[in-house]
Amino acid sequence: MNSIERTIEAMQRNLSEQITVDDMARVAMFSKFYFTRIFRDSTGLSPGKFLSALRLQEAKRLLTATSLSIAEISNRVGYSSVGTFSSRFKTNVGVAPTVYRATGGLTPSPAATARGRAVRHGDRPRRRLGTGAGRRRSSSGCSLSRCPGAPPRAARSGTARAPSP
Q1: What is the pLDDT of residues 53-92, one digit of tens each?
Q2: Within 13 A of 16's CA, how many CA atoms are on the CB side?
Q3: Any idea where the domains of the chain sit in the sequence?
Q4: For the whole prediction, is pTM greater than 0.85?
Q5: Quick one: DSSP state of residue 144?
Q6: Which of 2, 48, 128, 147 is the most exposed place for a label (fewest CB within 10 A)?
């Protein structure tokens, strides 16, 4: 078992505890910074986001498989505040924990949740018009100052500089 697997198992065993990145790095026997980098490289998520996803996954299981109260479930998955748990659950899952339980774990599509209505076949999310104040778009349509795949700044501005020795 490698250090990342060992850390994930420790997260799963201790979901109800307050777990920090320092705690995770200690289990993996790495520095906090090196651990964060290799964890993200291995899983595609930061350790904190991964832990949050594990907590929400367990909460969904408890909501559909048990009759525990929302407060008890939030405590079991590591949230000290029911309000924080409920808002994070709704943000990530799309519905409140009570609705998730009432529907047996079925959730509407993200497009339906965003528009507040059922999704019909062929519905597509609406595109926002305009680019917003102060945003400039590159020729590729990206509004970031450094777009992935964009040419370097010198090549974009037409003033190429020779590399310094």
Answers
A1: 999 999 999 999 999 999 999 999 999 999 999 999 999 9
A2: 5
A3: 3-107
A4: no
A5: S
A6: 128
Residue 17 burial (C-beta neighbours within 10 Å; 0-12, 13-18, 19+) = exposed
Q: Report pLDDT digits (tens) over 22-33.
A: 999 999 999 999
Residue 23 one-letter amino acid: D
DSSP class of residue 17 equals S
Tokens 């291995």, residue located? 42
CA–CA gap between residue 130 and residue 99 (Å, rounded): 35
Can you read off the two tokens belonging to residue 62?
Answer: 């408890």
Supply 126's token pair.
């609406």
Q: Where are the alpha helices (DSSP H) in the chain?
A: 3-13, 21-28, 32-43, 47-65, 70-76, 82-93, 97-102, 110-115, 153-157
CATH number of the domain at 3-107, please? 1.10.10.60
